[in-house]
Structure formats: C-alpha cells, structure tokens
Design a protein that fits this description.
By secondary structure, the chain is α/β, with parallel strands linked by helices. The chain contains nine helices and 13 strands. This is NAD(P)H-binding protein.
Length: 286
C-alpha cells in the first residue's frame, strides 16, 4: 500500500550562513515555523534551532555540499569594527566567494544583506568588503541583495548603531560625527529577518534593493529616542578615520528615498515595523 505521504512535496531546504547572528537566530525561528528544512552554517559550535548545524563552515567540506543542495542560501556573515582589511576580506568577501563557487551555475536563490553606500572602491573597509561581496554574488542568476541602513533592536541588547547613540555615562553627552540634523530611517531587526525569509522562499525579484524603516528622524532626535530621555548631543570636530565604526555609522545614517524604501518592502510582502516598537518614542518630545 502506498504511504499516505509519498506524494507530498519535499521540504524546501534553506541554508543560513552566519546563523548565530542576531538576524540569523530570528530567521531560524521563522523558517522552523514555516516547516522549512534548515542548515545553519557557523564558525563556532552553537545551540541553534536548525535541522543541521555545520561549524567551522568556511573550512568544512560539508558546507559546500549543503550549499549545493539548497533551494536557497541566506548569507548573513559580516565583520564589524575589525582592525585590519584582511579581517573584513575574510569575513565578507571570502564567504561570498565560497557560496558563489559552491553554487556554480545553479539557479539557487541567494539572499545577501549589504549596506547603503557599499562600494568595492570605498576607503571604508566595511563598505569596500560589502561592495566586493556584491560583485561576486551578482554574478549568480538569482541573487537578491538588500542594501540596509542602520538596524535597531532596542534594549536590553542594542545593536551597534544604537550603542553609538547611547550616553557613555550619566550626564555625559552623546558624541556624533557629521551633521546632527541629517536624517535616517532605521529598520527593525525583526523586519530584516522577515524579509530574509520571504526572499529565501521566492518572493520578489533578483537584483539590488534598498531597504529602510518607516520613520525618519535626525541623528540628534534618534539619540534622544534611543536613550528614552532628553540627553545632550554634541558634534565631534573633524572627520573620523575611514576605517572606524563611527565613520561607517556616520555614512550609512543618511537620508534615503522614502518611497523607494517602502516599494521594496511591498514587493517582498513586508509591513515595516514602526520605530516605537523598539524605542519608547513617547518618552521624549522630538
């Protein structure tokens, strides 16, 4: 007698590289709840919600086979605040190349999160590495690349952009580079994970897409909102080294076309989360 499940469609297989990142951990939960078979690629062993976990993945031949077998690959690897170009290259360019080589000519959906102003010729190592990774992945036929601005999560585990906005000590000013009235549209971490799942499962079109949050505020306003109380904000004189985290945050916290960002969200079926769900916007008048 035929088994009742013999005609069922096989489970889709999604590989998540950098699965122990904040976005990766959320994405694993979403994929599990959708009944997707998930392989998590990590550098160091970690307890994760996945069918398979492959550690030391950049040196492990099992990761090559998993990528080649996948219906979709989500690449979340990144380096932030490293002290030399070689670390950025290894963490972002080499990992993108490993995925590209493993897929060869396959029409596998690849989802990658890049950065606003990503540029292979940039003097900022982070933006340079993101640009070079984009070049490698855009050679694949079904790559979806999201260029993001600042990403926020809220307390008790703020992300790097939020940390740069927090007071270093009580009564101490928040020190920021650039024009304090320059506006930005931070995006919620949950939205990043949600659009990653949608793209991995086939939503949207290949190509490069800019993505940001629904609320626009100046850097000075964002500092008030991130702290939840009125805080002094001062502008740092001069320009930061092009290799520092502060320089990167000053660059990506730039105003974008709100209509374009909203159109990207709609095309992937995403409803953008208000900033108030991460930060108490009613705590401070802006």
């Amino acid at each position: 007698m035929m088994h009742p499940l013999s005609n069922a469609a096989p489970r889709r297989h999604v590989v998540v590289a950098g699965a122990n990142s904040p976005t990766g951990r959320l994405l694993l939960l979403l994929l599990r709840d959708s009944g997707i078979r998930v392989t998590a690629l990590v550098r160091r062993p970690a307890p994760l919600v996945a069918d398979d976990v492959i550690s030391d993945w950049t040196n492990n031949p099992h990761s090559i086979r998993a990528i080649a077998d996948a219906d979709a690959v989500v690449l979340l690897t990144g380096v932030f605040g490293a002290g030399c170009w070689e670390d950025y290259r290894a963490g972002m360019v080499d990992t993108a190349q490993r995925v590209a080589l493993a897929l060869a000519e396959r029409r596998t959906r690849v989802v990658y999160f890049s950065s606003l102003l990503a540029d292979a010729a940039s003097d900022n190592w982070y933006l340079k590495a993101k640009g070079k990774a984009e070049q490698l992945l855009m050679q694949l036929p079904d790559s979806v690349i999201f260029r993001l601005g600042p990403v926020v999560r809220g307390s008790p585990q703020p992300l790097p952009f939020e940390q740069a906005l927090l007071q270093p000590a009580p009564a101490a000013p928040v020190m920021l580079f650039g024009d304090l009235q320059r506006t930005s549209r931070p995006i919620n971490l949950g939205d990043v994970a949600t659009i990653a799942e949608a793209a991995a499962l086939g939503a949207g079109q290949p190509g490069i897409h800019e993505l940001g949050g629904p609320d626009e505020h100046s850097l000075e306003e964002l500092a008030q909102l991130a702290n939840g109380v009125a805080v002094p904000v001062e502008r740092l004189a001069g320009s930061p080294s092009s290799h520092t985290v502060r320089d990167l945050l000053a660059r990506i916290a730039a105003p974008r076309d709100a209509g374009l960002l909203a159109a990207t969200a709609r095309s992937f079926g995403l409803r953008l989360t208000p900033l108030s769900l991460a930060w108490p916007l009613d705590a401070v008048e802006v």
